[in-house]
Write a structure and sequence with these properties.
The protein has 2 domains: 61 residues, no CATH class; 206 residues, no CATH class. The chain has 11 helices and no strands. 25% of the residues are buried. Helices cover 78% and strands 0% of the residues.
Length: 269
């Protein structure tokens, strides 16, 4: 049978009924996250419904400028989420993070839609928005891990870093061990996923293509292509994010700028 089976409102309600199980576990163990969980579920529902209606309009119009604008909106939202998750100030890191996300998302996205899928219109809404969202979502998670690892490690081992500078190392050489560990931490989840994909789980792209009516081999080729695009995007984004933000994260003398951290004011008090 080809095509996707639509899920009715009543059928979706059965899906929400499943939430009784995790909520029961949280309540039974007295984990203080019941309110956060319920709020997150409500936010997820409202946000996805809004996006669903909005994307329907975008897909119907299929305007390249509108499609590109929506991708930029997603990048801006991801930018804010990364700074919040990494514990750094948006006002200081917004621009370098935006640039790194834009390059890390656009390059593999256009390569995926162009040379790989051979879509005539590179800004086709049907492909650009969902695929761009998949790449950007993984870049977001990787950036949070990479930036938080880099700056928290720098803050915790600042004496080691300063000793390296005192021994005559240049700034790029002094931060290289920290940036290397941060990039490794950010890329490790994707590497682990690629190593077990197909054996442990059937990932989203592959499942979606199969549910759409395609044969498994076609779905596998799509999944291979998207995983390569995701890995490329995360590598570009994390590497650029650390490199570009380091220009702001340290002063002219190579000292770590404590004002980049969101909690720095509280600590000074």
């Amino acid at each position: 049978m080809n095509g996707i089976i639509d899920i009715g409102v009543l059928n979706l309600a059965f899906g929400y009924a499943l939430l009784i199980i995790p909520l029961a576990v949280i309540i039974r163990l007295k984990i203080p996250m019941v309110t956060d969980t319920i709020v997150s579920i409500i936010r997820m529902t409202i946000q996805l419904l809004f996006v669903g209606f909005y994307l329907q309009v975008i897909f119907d119009l299929n305007n390249p400028w509108l499609n590109g604008a929506w991708v930029l909106v997603m990048i801006v939202v991801a930018d804010m989420s990364i700074t919040r998750g990494a514990g750094v100030r948006l006002s200081r890191f917004a621009l370098p993070l935006f640039v790194s996300l834009l390059v890390g998302t656009a390059l593999p996205l256009l390569f995926f839609v162009g040379p790989i899928m051979l879509v005539p219109n590179l800004m086709e809404a049907q492909y650009v928005i969902p695929i761009g969202g998949m790449i950007l979502g993984n870049c977001l998670r990787a950036d949070i891990i990479g930036l938080s690892t880099f700056y928290n490690t720098m803050r915790g081992k600042e004496k080691v870093y300063l000793a390296t500078l005192a021994q005559g190392a240049r700034f790029p050489e002094a931060i290289r061990p920290f940036s290397r560990d941060a990039v490794q931490a950010a890329l490790s989840p994707t590497v682990a996923t690629m190593a077990t994909i197909g054996l442990v789980s059937l990932p989203g792209m592959m499942t979606g293509v199969i549910l759409g009516g395609a044969d498994p081999m076609t779905a596998i080729k799509y999944q291979i292509a998207i995983m390569i695009a995701i890995f490329t995007g995360t590598a570009i984004t994390v590497y650029m994010a650390i490199g570009l933000t380091a220009r702001i994260g340290f002063d002219a003398y190579g000292m770590l700028n404590r004002k980049i951290f969101r909690e720095s004011e509280k600590r000074r008090r």
